[in-house]
Design a protein that fits this description.
By secondary structure, the chain is an alpha+beta fold. About 40% of the residues lie in helices and about 20% in strands. The protein has 2 domains: about 1-150, Rossmann fold (3-Layer(aba) Sandwich); about 150-198, no CATH class. The chain starts with a helix and ends in a 10-residue tail after the last helix.
């Protein structure tokens, strides 16, 4: 694998992009390990070196299809989060818009986790309200997976639940307030930015 990675590193050395070689190697390994019949989707600028790392990893693995979707500021359809123009609410929309398309064993790599918007959303995705678990991190790219636990919540008197199987904590009081607030915004047509209610 060392020779394969080195050849991709040389190939991408002249390509514009904001990922490091270590992040590229991570994408290569992740793409190589994708099971047969599944697709890889990179949403970003469409000309980034990350797509080359993904395509070469897929080629070395099960030769799954790799799609690159060029993003435009304001579009909610992103998976790979571009650190230069993201804000917290936007990043949240990106993750939520793609979450329903993910297979149960999906892996999501988010670039730019050193930026305030990306890091806050990843923290939420991994926290009380999240449906992802941490897998690994390289430089500014964090890899998360869909939470596979079928939770059995033990909820205390202050509405904090702890899963008896995996130990994950969830604030059910907060979940209830956010669900109520969200349904009120939808029914009243006010879909603007929600305030933090914690």
């Amino acid at each position: 694998m060392a020779n394969e990675v080195e050849s991709v590193r040389q190939l991408t050395s002249e390509i514009e992009g904001c990922i490091s070689d270590a992040e590229g190697e991570l994408l290569y390994r992740l793409a190589k390990d994708v099971p047969e019949g599944q697709a890889l989707v990179e949403v970003g600028r469409g000309k980034d070196k990350s797509i080359v790392w993904l395509a070469k990893g897929s080629e070395a693995g099960e030769k799954n299809k790799v799609y690159s979707i060029a993003s435009h500021k304001g579009s909610p359809d992103h998976v790979k989060v571009d650190e230069e123009n993201m804000h917290t609410e936007y990043v949240k929309k990106v993750i939520l818009s793609w979450q329903r398309h993910l297979c149960p064993n999906a892996i999501v790599a988010v670039h730019g986790c050193n930026q305030p918007g990306s890091s806050q959303v990843i923290k939420e995705c991994l926290g009380d309200l999240g449906y992802f678990t941490f897998k690994q991190s390289v430089d500014t790219t964090m890899v998360v997976t869909v939470d596979k636990c079928i939770h059995y919540w033990i909820i205390d008197s202050i509405e904090i639940g702890i899963c008896k199987y995996c130990g994950r904590k969830r604030n059910f009081k907060r979940l209830s307030r956010e669900a109520t607030r969200s349904s009120w915004c939808k029914s009243s047509g006010k879909m603007g930015q929600l305030e933090d209610i914690t």
